[in-house]
Amino acid sequence: MGTCMILVGVLTICGLSFSQECRRTFLENVDFPGTDITSLLSPDAEHCQQLCTQHPSCLFFTFIRQNWTEDNRNFYCYLKYTESGRPKVQNPLLGVTSGFSLKVCDSGSMVPCLSQMYQNTDFLGADYRGLFTTDHEECQRVCTQDPFCQFFTFVNGDFTTERIRNKCHLKFSWTIPRTPGVKREAGVVSGFSHKVEISQYFEPVCRGKLFSNTDIPGNDLEVLPAASPEHCQALCSADPRCTYFSYVSSNFNCHLKSNPNEIVTTAKEGITSGLPVHFCQLDNNWLKVAHEGVSFEGSDIRFELMDDAHTCQRTCTFDPNCQYYSYFTDSYSESNMRRRCYFKRVITVPAPPNIGKLNNVISGFSLKSCA
């Protein structure tokens, strides 16, 4: 959990006050050494800044550009944190760009428009569909119109391997919150912001299909923590590879499964299985459920002292940074934790799992978020 005390009504992120100056500009060829939280991959400094902004703890970053020549760490985005909110050291270094989180800025929507095209840059992995298109602009148009596509790589007509020239690779990235951990814990109430965006579709609304006390063994694609069968169904519906799922209530495990050819069910107590929804808005009433005796672990932005779980939920809903929360009631075993409302979020900006240099390919992002 967070280590810095935050009073009611004071929006502070572990030492970085929201009244602090908003710093959007980049520092070219300047390194912020040390204090790393983690490293991710980004095609440019602007995208790296968005990752830092959405990460619950990141306050500043250093990005290693495509023209870096010291080693093979091109496209690395190092997310960083200090209690003061400022880098401890700034050093000149060719080939890097540094900057600050936009958490303190009035940045409006938390879903950025990523319109840049990246020449000779390959977004590796996360493929779920391939097709042939006339050019990279058509590839981006297809990606934008496909509800699952978040980014793409297009192979142009000069590519070395002739048989895959003009191929458009559509790629998937999570855009809905995945809680890092869910566990049973007495005296804790957890839930979601009611404004979390789950689907690209607005109508019609559909419920999908759930099968109580039913398992679909095998064909596991991925296992993720989930608060309920309905949350698990939302995760399956968001992943183009998921054909059905099984949710184990005893350990909150959501088993996403992939087998488009058949579905074989078996009776099993404590497991709920189901099907994803297609081309419709999933019924989001599950977002409004407060889970008593359940704690969502990690991804804390901050905490505030509040009188009840309802106030915690309402405050999370009206905070554009908050995706979900955990509230520690007056009955919680540790007295120093009581009445704390922890606001939480994970990164949902589209993020390629790997990025590399490759001649005669063009990569980019969906324009769904661009007005």
Q: What is the number of helices?
A: 4
Percent of sequence in beta strands: 35-45%
Mean pLDDT reading: 91
Structural class: mainly beta
Give an overview of the whole structure.
The chain has 371 residues and is mainly β. The protein is 11% helix and 38% strand. The chain has 4 helices and 26 strands. The strands form 7 sheets. A 5-stranded antiparallel beta sheet has the order 3-7-5-6-4, with helices on one face. Strands 8-26-10-11-9 form a 5-stranded antiparallel beta sheet, with helices on one face. Strands 22-12-24-25-23 form a 5-stranded antiparallel beta sheet, with helices on one face. The longest helix is centred in the N-terminal third of the chain and has 10 residues. The radius of gyration is 22 Å and the shape is globular.
List keywords for this structure.
371 residues; mainly beta; 5-stranded antiparallel beta sheet; 4 helices; 26 strands; disordered N terminus
In short:
With 371 residues, the chain is mainly β. It is built from four helices and 26 strands. A hairpin with a 2-residue loop joins strand 1 and strand 2.
Strand-helix topology:
Layout: E1 12-13, E2 16-17, E3 27-31, E4 36-41, H1 45-54, E5 60-64, E6 76-80, E7 91-100, E8 118-124, E9 127-132, H2 136-145, E10 149-155, E11 167-172, E12 181-192, E13 205-206, E14 209-211, E15 214-215, E16 220-225, H3 229-238, E17 244-248, E18 253-257, E19 266-267, E20 271-275, E21 281-282, E22 291-297, E23 300-305, H4 309-318, E24 324-328, E25 340-344, E26 354-365
Parallel strand pairs: 13-21
Antiparallel strand pairs: 1-2, 3-7, 4-6, 5-6, 5-7, 8-26, 9-11, 10-11, 10-26, 12-22, 12-24, 14-20, 15-19, 16-18, 17-18, 17-20, 23-25, 24-25
